[in-house]
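FW: tagging you since you asked about this chain on Friday. Here's the raw sequence from the shared folder, copied in full. Didn't touch anything.
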Amino acid sequence: MSGLRRLAGRLGLSSARRYLLQGAFHTGVASKDDALAESDNRPHHYVSAAASVGNNTHIGVGAVIAPGVQIGTNCTIHANAVLGEDVVVGDDCHIGAGCSLANCTMGNRVVLQPGVRIGQDGFGFIPTASGNQKKPQLLRVLIEDDVELGANCTIDRGSHRHTFVGQGTKLDNMVHVAHNVRIGKHCLVAAQCGVAGSVTIGDRVHMGGQTGVAQHLSIGDGARIAGKSGVLQSLEGGKEYGGIPAVPLTQWKRQLIRIKQLIQRETSQPTTL
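HL: got it, structure written out here
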């Protein structure tokens, strides 16, 4: 076992150490029948004997597939990805290098760019006299077919309902989706947006980069939100919004014009001593 322990140390993964005695390392196309001898010095990844891996699924160097994982056919799991216990991955999925998946179920043709994090605990704490008490985060993340998540996106698992991303939705790099959020079908969310807990977003919603959405709000179908907006109240569908706080786009433009006029007026007045 010394060779396996050295490999686990190189991966730096406690989960790899925990599963060393439960399965075998594999290379190339995943198969339960190709366990490598300890003396084999080729690059390895780890697939638990209690995992299910579909045909023509390729698993990269250093990847870890935990017990109870189900992976469909024609998938690609790139180097150093970690799929935790009972993760479900559909057919024709692409999981980029260094992704970590836990407590999640994914549909078919899902694309995860490198560094995506799915299914970790959400930010839920209850302030008490003795300190901040952690709120249990026990549910899952559900991702439907044809979703794509950009590099370093993070999606937290649910606490009182499953966190959900609808069919065909695309998230740009570094988007954060908090616990209990529901995002509808075919939405487009640009880079560095943050969606706070328990928000409900309808279908075909577009959000510009660095938009923030406060918790427990609803955004209707077809809403379009300009970049760097701050959504502090629920928004009706089918309209365009912008600003902090986000208001209908025409109103936001009037606000900007008025602010510009006030600045010009202030700077045009002579300074008196």
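FW: The radius of gyration is 23 Å.
HL: agreed, and The chain has three helices and 33 strands.
FW: great, closing this out.
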